[in-house]
Automatic annotation (TrEMBL):
This is Acid phosphatase 6, lysophosphatidic. Gene3D superfamilies: Phosphoglycerate mutase-like. It comes from Scleropages formosus (Asian bonytongue). Signal peptide: none annotated. Belongs to the histidine acid phosphatase family.
């Protein structure tokens, strides 16, 4: 049976409930890991020569129900590290007075809603977690950027309805050691590869022709540096917040979306092992290590049931590519990728179930939606990297 036929058969079984119903009786949930995108935000840059939207401070108000007592710290429990990327955002101002890349009220609510969905799954429907936050049970990790830190806070507030046994520690790290996003800031080889691919993507024949046409339609001068990812970022941010989009931009909506995704696929290379390894290999290794530690009963991980990682779209897309489940659509704000670890009640065999946007996924190379752990590890083996191996590769000039 071919893989597409096998996938269709297993998806049919999943949708009919025959897989999940049997698994409910035989398998016991042991660990949940959620990698989720931050919520809606202000754009990172405005489209050149196009009338800017008004990003006023009122769009950034914090809803009271998203607040929770928390403390941001480094991975060792010390003070929050310096944040040069965030400092760069704060050094410029958008029209209206807000800074680029800031989480908005809408974005905060989106993460609160995701937290409520996780609460239904792991507190209400299945009593897997306690109803109040406990740092002994839940680990929260974010990139050292304010919008992801705030997104993590809002998710935890929704998940535990602002109930907490102790202060919520949100762990982060400095830019030199960050692996929760493709770190071309400090990985020289990745910077080289990404730079080459980014330059190539703008010159791909169909993309280049469409980019020239949309620049003309929007009145962007020739020679002005712009690409479909930048245009999409501003466009989607406006749409999410109900702000005005120039008519030519609205009419190009579908093309912008399609071409931006094509750029990302070219840049990170959905079929390019080396690019995906350097982009998300260390993060995938962390997820697998957490699974192994849980199975082996490592003391530091034994009591923890939930690991939360607030990341970026440029993390989620390479992860989806490595897992073989990227649907050629840009992950929406507050998108979530969830890995659940189960053990068979009798045999103690371990299984992994992956879901994206709340929908179970069949991983290529896995014999079932509930994927035997060894099959899952083999499916990811081409893309995972230990931190030491990652740093060794980053110092090279070529793969």
């Amino acid at each position: 049976m071919s893989w597409p036929q096998k996938k269709a058969e297993l998806v049919e079984k999943r949708d009919s409930g025959s897989i999940s119903k049997s698994a409910d009786y035989e398998l016991e949930l042991q660990l949940v890991q959620v990698a989720f995108r931050h919520g809606a935000r202000t754009p990172l840059r405005s489209i050149p020569a196009v009338q800017e939207a008004q990003w006023v401070p009122d769009l950034l108000k914090v809803p009271d129900h998203t607040r929770i007592e928390h403390l941001v710290m480094d991975l060792q429990g010390g003070p929050r590290p310096p944040a040069p990327i965030e400092d760069n955002y704060r050094s410029s101002t958008l029209s209206g007075g807000s800074h680029p890349g800031q989480l908005t009220t809408l974005g905060m609510q989106q993460l609160y809603d995701l937290g409520q969905r996780l609460r239904k799954s792991y507190v209400v429907d299945v009593p897997f977690l306690m109803s109040a936050f406990s740092s002994a049970e839940v680990y929260v990790r974010s990139t050292n950027i304010v919008r992801t830190i705030e997104s993590a806070r809002c998710l935890v507030a929704g998940l535990f309805q602002q109930k907490q046994e102790d202060e919520v520690p949100i762990f982060t790290t400095d830019i030199e050691n960050e692996v929760l996003y493709p770190n071309y800031h400090t990985c020289n080889l990745l910077k080289l590869l990404i730079g080459q691919r980014w330059a190539e993507s703008s010159q791909l024949p169909d993309l280049a022709a469409d980019l020239k046409s949309i620049q003309s339609a929007l009145g962007i001068p020739e020679g002005q540096r712009v690409d479909f990812i930048l245009i999409r970022d501003d466009m989607v941010a406006r749409e999410a917040h109900g702000l005005h989009c120039p008519e030519p931009l609205s009419s190009w909506r579908a093309t912008v979306e399609k071409r931006a995704v094509q750029m990302i696929c070219h840049i990170y290379g959905s079929n390019n092992r080396g690019h995906l390894q350097l982009s998300v290999g260390p993060f995938l290794h962390i997820l697998l290590t957490n699974i192994e530690d849980k199975i082996q009963g490592v003391a530091s991980s034994c009591s923890r049931k939930l690991f939360l990682y607030c990341v970026h779209d440029t993390t989620l897309m390479p992860c989806l590519m490595a897992l073989g489940i990227f649907d050629n659509r840009w992950p929406p704000y507050a998108a979530d990728l969830t890995l659940e670890l189960y053990q068979h009640r009798s045999t103690k065999e371990a299984f992994i179930k992956v879901s994206y946007l709340g929908q179970d996924q069949l991983i290529p190379g896995c014999s079932d939606v509930y994927c035997p752990l060894e099959e899952f590890k083999e499916a990811l083996s081409a893309f995972t990297l230990t931190v030491d191996h990652y740093h060794s590769l980053c110092s090279q000039d070529d793969l």
